[in-house]
């Protein structure tokens, strides 16, 4: 069963979700997901692509409902799909005003040894460099996926020259990596993983992240916050993670909501509702 609706906490934005994977493959289904989210204070969402099919779904959802915005790109495990046709289509999508970020892109070394279809690291790095360039050319934030590749990922960003805004989606690194990212001005986005009982280092990373570089996301339908870990996730679950961060940082729930909500609207250039 999905988690119960949290107590409403107004002004929130889900900084990274996957509406299609949550069942949002029609205008009606997207509206139902976003209606439930808005009822608990999650006013806007950024729905993110993993592959070209997902990218088309994300743009469609952003056109169906003005509470949804899209991020487009190829997940590093799908980096081998970045052929000329995909480059052309992604460049066209990036020009769409409903598209507010490029990604998720980056490096994923976890799946290289666990999946026969995962792009190898060299292919991932080439695709990552191309997405970095697209973010700079489009003037839109770069949304990073990083799994087991901290050093190489930061080195590629340094070598290519990072765009103005870099978002470390579902940050999962050590406090030392968090400090390095913060020093570079990268935005750290925390998901339900920061609430897990075994995420001691991740909470330390969240504590050292300054207010202005902090986002909250669901990464739905994955990573449902404690105590509902393993149950289906959706954007309406954002308040659970925000309240956990508020307790960690010793501020009120309302103050934490104002911080992460205003950050998301600034980072993605979202309109006020």
What would you note in describing this structure?
There is one protein chain. By secondary structure, the protein is an alpha/beta fold. The protein has helices at 27-39, 52-64, 84-94, 121-138, 150-160, 175-183, 200-208, 238-249, 253-267, and strands at residues 12-17, 42-48, 68-72, 99-108, 142-147, 166-168, 187-190, 214-216. The protein has an eight-stranded parallel beta sheet with strand order 1-2-3-4-5-6-7-8, sandwiched between helices. The mean pLDDT is 97.
Secondary structure elements and pairings:
Elements: E1 12-17, H1 27-39, E2 42-48, H2 52-64, E3 68-72, H3 84-94, E4 99-108, H4 121-138, E5 142-147, H5 150-160, E6 166-168, H6 175-183, E7 187-190, H7 200-208, E8 214-216, H8 238-249, H9 253-267
Parallel strand pairs: 1-2, 2-3, 3-4, 4-5, 5-6, 6-7, 7-8
**Number of DSSP strands?**
8
Tally of helical runs: 9
Shape: globular
Span between N and C termini?
31 Å
Features:
273 residues, alpha/beta, eight-stranded parallel beta sheet, 9 helices, 8 strands, 16% strand
Task: Report a brief summary of the structure.
This protein has 273 residues and is α/β, with parallel strands linked by helices. It has 9 helices and 8 strands.
